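Weekly sync, protein design subgroup
Attendees: M.S., D.O., the rotation student, P.L. (late)

Item 1: inverse folding check
M.S. brought a backbone from last month's batch and wanted to see whether the design step gives back something sensible before we order anything. D.O. pointed out we never logged the input encoding, so this time it goes straight into the notes. Structure tokens as presented (443 positions):
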């Protein structure tokens, strides 16, 4: 996400960071680069002009040119303007009622925007948070839309309300009664989409809104549609009134024009972003964290949160103890590979590590090697995983055959693992080194 614009902004930031002296000409050149980067990212022209003018006005002020560290001051101005562009400090929380009252969420958007899948992702998120969601199949236009929602609902363990009728308003109205009866506190209504905007669709959504009085009216837009998503969002805001936006397929959008234009043009916050096809691939949109990623500064907070979601604290403590005692085995190493996979793809993790953007690429990390190592360990017996020293020539040959690799690959893994154990032992015992690492990571 934001690949092209992030690369350009990262270069600009690197040029200015730590500069003891900058001139008005330096600023003008940098701002011109920023302008080109934003336009190439398909950001709305009005938004670009506003961003550039405010940056120039503030950067040419005395507090930059005459400050102790003008380079860092200029970088901070760009960061602040970017946060403001994405939504500033506006709350990203949904306006939901208490656990004993039913909150209604209306999902809107064009056909193909990922509305139905996003509804299921949202339901999955609420369920994990302890709420009791009920999905409503009110998209009675698109063939198999009801079936798709039912399949997704079964996958995440959330019930789906549907009726044999052609009246979506009736379905929505009856689902509210069903939610109250079944004590579901979050009702998520999936409405009909069209290939393009039309009065019939808007009229239908307006009637549904009147019938259920939704607490949240979320517009789902395909991030890859760029400026078109902004135009459509404006139309929905005028006709129905939206409370927030969810950008789907955000992981495929390398330019980011929609995300960088929506807040300024439509005046509504981006609440969530879809970052993959799995039900867990829905993230809260934090403007400050996203601005940090765009500028190549990483996002250590999200990285830590992802780690906390996938790594059990007690398990982490047990692992640290094993490292210190030098009892870390191949099964533990396999578990660590599995944990890394749960946290997401390598390129997403690299984006979150401060200073890694632009210096480490996905190509620098051999993901095929991890898969190969995983296959090799899975071909071992539990006794071999617990004590790698018993793995002699015959065992290595058997493991290689079982994992579809060569004996050379098995030998390389075992040598790598032996070195890793020694490093881990030193790290686990060296508290000073640990503190230094944490400091570098901004923790």
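Designed sequence read out in the meeting:
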């Amino acid at each position: 996400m934001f690949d092209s614009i992030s690369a350009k902004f990262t270069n600009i930031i690197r040029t200015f960071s730590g500069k003891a002296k900058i001139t008005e000409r330096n600023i003008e050149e940098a701002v011109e680069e920023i302008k080109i980067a934003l336009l190439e990212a398909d950001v709305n022209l009005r938004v670009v002009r506003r961003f550039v003018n405010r940056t120039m006005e503030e950067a040419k002020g005395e507090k930059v040119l005459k400050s102790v560290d003008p380079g860092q001051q200029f970088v901070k101005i760009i960061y602040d303007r970017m946060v403001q562009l994405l939504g500033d400090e506006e709350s990203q929380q949904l306006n939901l009622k208490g656990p004993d009252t039913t909150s209604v969420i209306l999902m809107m958007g064009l056909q193909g925007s990922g509305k139905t899948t996003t509804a299921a992702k949202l339901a999955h998120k609420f369920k994990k948070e302890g709420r009791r969601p009920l999905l409503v199949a009110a998209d009675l236009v698109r063939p198999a839309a009801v079936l798709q929602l039912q399949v997704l609902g079964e996958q995440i363990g959330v019930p789906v309300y549907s009726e044999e009728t052609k009246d979506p308003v009736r379905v929505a109205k009856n689902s509210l009664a069903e939610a109250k009866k079944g004590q579901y506190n979050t009702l998520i209504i999936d409405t009909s989409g069209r290939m393009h905007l039309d009065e019939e669709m808007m009229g239908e959504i307006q009637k549904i809104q009147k019938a259920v009085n939704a607490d949240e009216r979320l517009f789902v837009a395909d991030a890859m549609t760029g400026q078109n998503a902004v135009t459509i969002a404006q139309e929905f805001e005028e006709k129905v009134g939206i409370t927030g936006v969810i950008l789907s397929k955000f992981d495929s959008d390398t330019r980011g024009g929609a995300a960088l234009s929506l807040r300024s043009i439509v005046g509504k916050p981006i609440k969530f972003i879809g970052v993959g096809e799995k039900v867990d691939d829905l993230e809260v949109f934090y403007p400050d964290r996203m601005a940090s990623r765009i500028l190549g500064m990483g996002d250590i907070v999200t990285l830590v949160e992802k780690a906390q979601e996938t790594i059990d604290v007690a398990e982490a403590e047990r692992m640290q103890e094993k490292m210190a005692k030098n009892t870390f085995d191949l099964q533990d190493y396999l578990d660590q590979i599995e944990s890394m996979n749960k946290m997401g793809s390598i390129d997403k993790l690299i984006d979150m590590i401060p200073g890694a953007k632009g210096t480490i690429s996905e190509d620098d990390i051999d993901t095929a090697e991890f898969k190969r190592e995983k296959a090799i360990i899975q071909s071992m017996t539990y006794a071999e995983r617990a004590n790698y020293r018993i793995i002699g020539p015959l065992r290595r040959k058997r493991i290689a055959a079982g994992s579809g690799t060569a004996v050379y690959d098995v030998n390389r893994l075992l040598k790598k693992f032996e070195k890793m154990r020694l490093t881990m032992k030193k790290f686990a015992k060296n508290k000073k080194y640990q503190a230094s690492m944490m400091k570098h990571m901004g923790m």
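Discussion: The domain at 3-86 is CATH 1.20.120.140 (Four Helix Bundle (Hemerythrin (Met), subunit A)). The longest strand covers residues 216-222.
Action: P.L. to compare against the previous round before Friday.
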